[in-house]
Amino acid sequence: LRIRNQLVRECLAELLAVFVLIVSGAHGGSAQMVTSSGAKGDIVTAYLAGALAIMVAIHTAGGVSGAHLNPAFSFTMCLLEQFPWWKFPIFMAVQILGAFISAGAVYVLYYDAIWHYSNGTPTTSGPRETASIFATYPADYLSLSNGFLDQVIGTALLIMGILAMLDTRNKSVPKGLEPVAMALLVFCIEISMGSNCSCPLNPARDFGPRLFTYVAGWGAEVFSRGNGWWWVPVVAPLLGATVGSALYQLLVAFHHPEESDPQAEQNSLVLVS
After folding, report:
1. How far apart are CA 34 and CA 130, in angstroms?
2. Is the pLDDT of residue 253 over 70?
3. d(CA 11, CA 13)
């Protein structure tokens, strides 16, 4: 049963990692929060669950696929020529598929709770809505343009933080602690920027479960609510990834001194002394 093809191994690992991310993370935490009316969780616990799930997901697939988990990160790696462009649509499809399957698992796990809470009617709005368990929706006051900017900035911060943590010529994270650091980074962004639209930051995490709710009974309103909000968490994070990677390269990475640079050696000696 052993699979030797590298691409297949990477896809399977990525699929499992996304499954872990969603079932034990953000959507599982949201389901517990929503269906208990806040009695067994709140927005902070949901964000914390998502952050801890990222840590576990990176451990799950990091040594096989790199645990991209997010098309925005895969896109960044392509921009930086650290990941082949031909793999990008494959990884994105696997990530969306993993998110779709994971949404189904959360639905099955919380089936009774969802139907009890919603009084047997799955809706995307109103006091008993349950669609937000699976996908993000904008706050009532949020415009599409402001929401788009929110996701560009949030994803740019995410990518800049990840690149800094992985940059061995900067203050990189000690080997083995990358999953913990990245989990804390996501948690930081979510608790500081989550009020507008719950900080999706990940096209697969939002679109895959949204597609599941469409086929599972919530209907076409999952795509029309919020003036057609659904495309913003798909497109904006990719632009945010471009902005974040460009800023880090232009302001930090391009200016690292060469290892043989006398000035760099002098600065090192000064720091040591």
Report:
1. 7
2. yes
3. 5
